Amino acid sequence: MAGRNAGAGAEVETRRDPAGPLDMSALTTIVGYPLRRAQLAVFDDFNRRFAALALSPAQFSTLALIGANPGRKQSEIAGALGIQRPNFVAMMDELERRGLAERLRTPADRRSRALALTPTGEALVARARRVQAEQETEIERLIGGTSRELLIAALTQLTRLAS
Amino acid sequence: MAGRNAGAGAEVETRRDPAGPLDMSALTTIVGYPLRRAQLAVFDDFNRRFAALALSPAQFSTLALIGANPGRKQSEIAGALGIQRPNFVAMMDELERRGLAERLRTPADRRSRALALTPTGEALVARARRVQAEQETEIERLIGGTSRELLIAALTQLTRLAS
DNA sequence: TGAGATAGTTATACGGAATAACAATTGAAG
DNA sequence: CTTCAATTGTTATTCCGTATAACTATCTCA
Q1: Per residue in A11-51, pLDDT tens?
Q2: Contacts B46 to A, Cβ<8 Å
Q3: pLDDT by residue (tens digit) across B5-23?
Q4: What value does the mean pLDDT take over residues A84-88?
Q5: Strand C: which bases are under 7 Å from protein Cβ?
Q6: Which structural domain, as residue segments, surrounds residue B90?
Q7: Contact between the CB of A56 and strand D at under 7 Å
């Protein structure tokens, strides 16, 4: 029953609120919970670092991927990032509006759009990569370089859980 | 450059679409990207395993935390889970509607609600823990037991990135 | 007693993500 | 060549998770 409110109530019980920290052990010992928390923390940190560049994680990954694979079809880039084609349209609209990327028509297949960075986009990606490297350095400071490599390897393996 | 369509067109060039896999190295070598992908994969796997119990990750963590800390205030549980108080109301509405948890009035402070599991909720948490253990076993199979422990430790450290 | 803080709640808005449906284009089979 | 199915990008729409402001009831403290 864990009855604890009973009887005399002798000494004054100064704090009305015992309020010790909660028992989180059921969550902190399974992978899913710290995984989610870490992802939120890393993305929050990312957003703080990239506030000046006004780049979200999704925008950064899109630009980086286009930069490394110019000329690829819109659906290829979206697919590689795990973004549904319909949702990727607004993403490209915005990157194009900001003059960072462009959708080119290709004679080979007039349905598709070949994506590429503009010079402005190339310059921004170069700056972004440096900012990103700073985050990576901070992560190494937190968990160590070797641990960082092992972490990436383990996380990559976990991806294979996908049905 | 990279001219490849020119001249003779000797042999047949069966595939119109070279379409080799994309260069993802700019993303796969930084922590943030595999971290996000792994989180999505683990949660997808979780949702598949918990489809029969109709429990989302957030619902599971809420029930598990209430079960380990019965009598705590609603705001304490919400805070520990990183859920804003307003958003936690609908969560509890649903858990209460399903008869899994309840909000008790406490004489000490009539503003707050002391959360607890119902017997039904206790039983469900017990089942859920077993299902969860199966996922953890699968994760160990993928990355190894030692690696799993190191992974949790590294992820927990990353949480300290939070400003 | 009264001012300010706290707990829970409501309403609301924003962004990410999923689905259906459509037009334009391509590829393949008859 | 014609026709039909598949592909590409797009629009519209929906759902869910999350953030914020504001309200009521209650508590604390001066």
Answers
A1: 223 334 557 899 999 999 999 999 999 999 999 999 999 99
A2: 32
A3: 333 322 223 334 557 899 9
A4: 98
A5: 6-12, 15-21, 24-27
A6: 55-161
A7: no
Looking up residue A110, the CATH number of its domain turns out to be 1.10.10.10
Contact flag, residue B18 CB and nucleic strand D, below 7 A: no
Nucleotide nearest to A115 (CA to C1'): D9
Nearest-CB residue to B65 (from A22, A139, A159): A22
Asked whether residue A25 is domain-assigned, the answer is no
DSSP notation for chain A:
----S-S---S----S---PPP--HHHHTSSHHHHHHHHHHHHHHHHHHTTTTT--HHHHHHHHHHHHSTT-BHHHHHHHHT--HHHHHHHHHHHHHTTSEEEEE-SS-TTSEEEEE-HHHHHHHHHHHHHHHHHHHHHHHHH-HHHHHHHHHHHHHHGGG--
Give the pLDDT confidence score for residue B18 in this predicted structure: 58
